[in-house]
Write the structure tokens for this entry.
Amino acid sequence: MDSRSSCVVVTGFGPFRQHLVNSSWEAVKELSKLGLGNDMEVELQTLQLPVDYREVKQRVARIWEALQPQLVVHVGVDPAAKAIFLEQCSKNRGYRDADIRGFRPECGVCLPDGPEVITSEVSMKAVSRRAAVQGVEVAFSRDAGRYVCDYAYYLSLHHGNGCAALIHVPPLSPWLPASLLGKALQVLIQEMLEEIKKARAQNQKLSLCSSSQGESTGGLLL
């Protein structure tokens, strides 16, 4: 975990179906202009992924191998959403909807030997409660939809041992422009990084306590 770089990768998706302009990528482009804030001490990299299962599988693997990021955040669009949803987990099965090339994963499975569910290290409930996002509601979810964005999320959770997130944004509208969504992403990812920092500090503390207790017990046995 500590060997990872300070890099944070945020991806949006390209066009699909009737979504010729994908709000996820428009939001990520706005985030790229804003950055994550001078005090975050992270390198932000943004990438567009195609709505293509096979291409996503290759690109997600390359992201983790080449960049070794501390966090990967995938941003997808939920056409029916009125709020921003933070997805807590991803499922391995049920990918039955075709991508832009008409392809479906064999048997609807992401990784044949993978666990049924992988959960993010980030507490999405905590982030959704703490994040102060203006102009749009933020909620958390445990069903990421079983499409290409969920597929990418599962792969990132697998490669990154839980150090990944998926944010679903609504479509663009006059009252929900890309600039507002970009600012929302900035606030949410800042909170996610703080959440990861707290969780790791707590784990380190528990590990030190456990280690010191073990040494004490060892002394008594001697």
Q: What stands out?
A: The longest helix spans residues 178-221. The longest strand covers residues 7-13. The helical segments are 23-34, 53-67, 124-130, 148-159, 178-221.
